[in-house]
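## Example pair
The file below holds two records. Each record gives the amino-acid sequence first, followed by its structure token line.
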Amino acid sequence: VPFIFYLMFVSVTVKWGKQKFSNVSMPVGTSDAANMFKETLFNLTRVPVDRQKVMAKGVWKGFLKSDTLIPENPTVSTVTLIGSAEALSEPVPKLGDLSLAESFEKAEQAAAAAATAAEIESAEGIIAACQLPPHERTDGKKEPYNYNYIVFGFPQRKIEAELVKRREEKEPDMLFGKCVMHLGLEADRAYINALICLDDGTIVSAMDNGHVQLWKHARRVRDVLHGQEVTCLVALPGYKVQDDSYSTVLFASGANDMSVKVWNQQGDCVQQLATPSFMNMASIPKALAYIQTASGGGVLSAALSPFRMFQRLPGDPEQDRLRAQENQVLAHASCSLQVWSAEAGAAFGSSQLLQSFSAAPVAAVALCGKRSELIAGGDVQGGLTFWSYNSTGSIFSKQASMRLRPPNNSAAEVVCMTAVGRADSSTALLAVATKSTQRGAFTVAAEVECPVATASAVFLVDVSRLVVLAVLTGHSDSVICMCSLPNGGIATGGGKLDGTVQVWLPSQWQQLDHHQQQQQQQQQQQQQPLVLDICAKKLKEPGYSFALTVAPDAKLGSRLFALVAARYNSVKICL
């Protein structure tokens, strides 16, 4: 027969100073009753156990000790407590309050919030991708170690030490090029195609096996499946969708299953958008950009790669007619941007196609302008088209167009684009990375033709004047990825034959000595932009990268940040 132990209680009144607590349960008849009763008094009054002096006349002598046996039938109804409580942000509520438990919980939360704020204030860096919360950073390690089976990196205190070195440098916003953490399995068969950083510091990586992974505080917090190969990602800052439980920041991903999915910060898909299709034609999103509107809504735009799902048989007049129709639709979709609009608090709804000035397929899309109010589309022949958006009537209007025109029979195919410069900068720059390709038989009628000396480089375009301000030629191979830096600079990642990440600073194209100014004026007179072939710094790590993004330090007033790079099947975080 199993032995069943029953714990007995009696109700007493606890007198503590001027306060009285009625109907307090006091355990009796067990050797651990004294310790249990002291814990009850602590939860009730917040007087620490080691400060408690508990007396009950006729039940035990003197003060209650941990080994005191409380009899089963004590002849007492009042227990006296002497001792001072811990400091609380709110006074201890009386038993007669509406909800004693809720009051204590609120007081504990306030105390915890105050302690957390103090820890954050004294912490060195709040880069959520690679740093743990301040109270968890004492890991006792001195050398790099495995945080878990898929994360390897420096100890937390060593990461803080590296940030201190950065902060004490003359240029604290210049990267060291030192990798402090690896996220993911290097032996994984899936490669990473895209990276973004959300507002709360969470890193999102998209893989060619259809998985989307969320990383925060040196661990993978979510791994979800989009479908087929994920080709692009974009953060949706300021855009919120109100559902039954919460309103949350979102991001979007595009994949080879001809869809764009919108996700919340917890990694749940909240909406799926279909890309254009017609008869035998479908389209894959290959680049995404997002405009945040003043009303709280937004506009999501996608560069498309249309294709035929099957080939039609030749020689049949009906099949030939359908093929001709499909060719027209393919040509129209490939040189357009698909855009979806959303009102504040609502899901993305109406969509439309924005036609570029050129008949060449659009390869990349980005935001630009002084207030990121323009959408830029770059095509495979070096053409750039700029659209503006009027949120009042959800109207897009084509603002301008230009083309990068290299010599001979070559063309500058746009690979990727990103806005460059600080938020308070007076000049809106767009960095355009291109690679050399053959000039195709496309109708190109740009408003501005910009002659350039090479087809493979990074071009800094002054959006307001439609001129190329500078050409970055420091890589020995085409640039395949890049990202803007908080200091107004840019990080560029070269192709496999180059395998380096280089940092370029605004001072290289803004502050020139007298000789260089004369040279620049002569070049501008000849319609030739300034050529920069030496970067500000060539980083030792991360090396050959597929995608780049920045993880800023969330600490108020900090200029520090980390560079996050996708290298094959893992993510590198570098300081």
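Second record, same layout:
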Amino acid sequence: MAADQEETNVKDSARRRSQGLVGDTPGSELWQKRTAARAMLRAVNFDDEDFFKPIVSVACTHTNATPCNAHLDQLGAVIMEEVKQRGGKPFVFGTPVISDGETMGTTGMRYSLVSRDLIADCIETMHEGYLSDGLITMGGCDKSIPGALMPLLRTDAMGVMLYGGSILPGHLDGNDLTVVSSFEAIGARGAGRIDDDQLTRVEKNSCPGPGACGGMFTANTMSSIIEAMGMSVPYSAAHTAVTRDNQLSKDKVLDCVRSVDALFTCLENRITARQICTKKAFENGIVIMMALGGSTNAVLHLLALAHEAQVDLTIDDFNRIADRVPLIGDFKPFGRYVMADLEKIGGVPMVMKYLLSKGLIHGDCMTVTGKTVAENLADAPDPPIESNVILPVEQPYAGPGKHVVVMRGNLAPEGAVIKLSGKEIDRHRGPARVFESEESALDAVLAGKIVDNDVVVIRYEGPRGGPGMREMLSPSAAIMGAGLGKTVALITDGRFSGGTHGIMVGHISPEAHVGGPIALVEEGDIIVLEPGKRLLTLEVSDDELERRRQTWRPRTQQLTGTLKKYSQLVSSASLGAVTH
């Protein structure tokens, strides 16, 4: 009897919000008022006892349009069953999902970053609309991961975010492949370095099954960060999505079970998302991003997440933290390994435990397990002595401040972002080759019109001007494929894929659409990149820039629907490109 009463008390504590939807106690005034709601819920298989269970929103960002999220319906089914087993009642729903890799280089890519905030809005709407008690969100493709965490922070919900897992690497001629291999093969074909047959072989062997892009691109970067911040269960970020025969991996199924356990721990102990995602937790996330060699998109997404969490994080915090964190992960796109290799040696907890021992991680942060970071890491493995996947802090791939760097200067007064990944670029000085869109720049690269020392400028691709801040993977990969990665720079007010490498500067703010200095650059102007000094300079006098500013006029846009609303609402990239 005592155990039954304790279980009842736990359920009552866990379902405080949903009483507003279904009623509290039979016979009460609220119970009577909610009769019609219960009548409708009975039509979707609610029984008498179900009205006394906590309602759990299950945001399943599934689509068969992309391998990143194609298996999430299966994970969602596992989660729903586990919620039922734990005495809850799941409400499942989907959201839009836009694949960066598939829409890259098309107008469809304008909807990619837009989808991040749209996903967040959809999840918030369902969770708040149905007064759910707990929330489990799932993500796979790049924007669905921050999009899945943003509503948890926005509403200060009790919930957990689960990553769908990484794709296994493709194999060809003894080499591991990722989707970026296909993009770079396009540039290699354009330069005549491979033929059509080899291009087709790369295409057919790059993506063997479900899961998000395999390198330390944006999806794996964000999943690692979110685990480090404490909003996902330990080890889940590195677990691959499926086996070689494209069946759900046992570890990913177990991640579903552990995520539901964590959710009920949060419900029973009233642990909310903002209690977990403190300033220290964000700093842990940035440390992991810098140590593993994460995507520049993480800057944009972390700023947006901090905005939702009401945490005071600025673009300058990234340099502050980078200055003490070496790059110790040897991951694609700049390195040799993929996420599946990290999984084999202990995943993100192994890396965090090592960094904690070096004083680089805050161990006292709370997590969704109900334990602190340090408590979660107590039994994590140590880095294997003979592995090259994670290098010692004393002998890193690159020293502190040598991975993602925020630059400023007269060309980027509000900031810009470069991913060095250990590249020793003291200075790049060259003539501007100005393009008003990604497509025109790609055409020029493939036509052989870009030469050593050029600085390719792609503008009017910012959050408002694009709109949607498209990723420039097609032209950047074409530059790499053409063998120009060490001699040509590309700068833009757009973004870069997590798969981008080379001399690439993105997120230039203010953007061209609002009259930022990048709008004033003319063909042949000399541009200087000095990553060590964190400067991006246009060698044009202040007087000349002012003269150009007086004659500059905004470009008119013929927008409708979603893109029109987004363009009117979105903030600067330096603030995370948020819409509220």
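Notes on the second record: The chain has 23 helices and 14 strands. The mean pLDDT is 95.
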